[in-house]
Amino acid sequence: QVQLVESGGGLVQAGGSLRLSCAASGSIFSINIMGWYRQAPGKQRELVAAITSGGSTTYADSVKGRFTISRDNAKNTVYLQMNSLKPEDTAVYYCNLVVIGLQYWGQGTQVTVSS
Questions:
Q1: Contact (Cβ atoms closer than 8 angstroms) between residue 7 and residue 20
Q2: Is-contact 69 59, C-beta < 8 A?
Q3: 3-state SS track over the chain
């Protein structure tokens, strides 16, 4: 089974930066999609960014130009570099791994941006 362990969340001031990491372990196929979702209080979980094992990326419009997703396939790790953070970025961020119709989730890490 696949396990996802996240790290890097915390409290930062508006305009600051933070980098999230997610390490995957278990029976992981080399071809997959890893991504980051977030869920703010009272809102549905939304896709922030995703990256394929080949390096193709997609971003939510709200984070384009500020966030960068990357991965290290050898380490089965995905990163989310978050710059120019805004209070509206405050949410629990979840790591996600998708293989065909199967998906796995991390436990979530809290990101709080103060004004």
A1: yes
A2: yes
A3: CCEEEEECCEEEECCCCEEEEEEEECCCCCCCEEEEEEECCCCCCEEEEEEECCCCEEECCCCCCCEEEEEECCCCEEEEEECCCCHHHCEEEEEEEEECCEEEECCCEEEEEEC
Measured torsion, CA atoms of residues 37, 60, 8, 92, in degrees rounded to the nearest 10: -40
Write out pLDDT tens, residues 15-71: 999 999 999 999 888 889 999 999 999 999 999 999 999 999 999 999 999 999 999
At a CB cut-off of 8 Å and minimum separation 6, what does 109 contact? Answer: 6, 7, 8, 9, 20, 92, 93, 94
Query: What is the tens place of the pLDDT at every residue in 58-111?
Result: 999 999 999 999 999 888 999 999 999 999 999 999 999 998 889 999 999 999
Copy the structure tokens of residue 59: 């971003």
